[in-house]
Predict the 3D structure of the following.
Amino acid sequence: MMSEMRAYHIFYQVADAVSHMHGLGIAHRDLKLSNIFCEGSSDYPLVYVGDFGHATQLAEEQLVI
């Protein structure tokens, strides 16, 4: 079972990554558990979002905040 603190830490990093991508005008379009990678086994792993095969660059007027 995952601790609440570990889940929070992972979710925060994923949300931060998505926010960063959207700030660059990039939509991932395939965000799912199998595209989220954790490095380390502690309560504070480093999290990566991968597989940008379906990602697209959006025009500014297409971005929804």
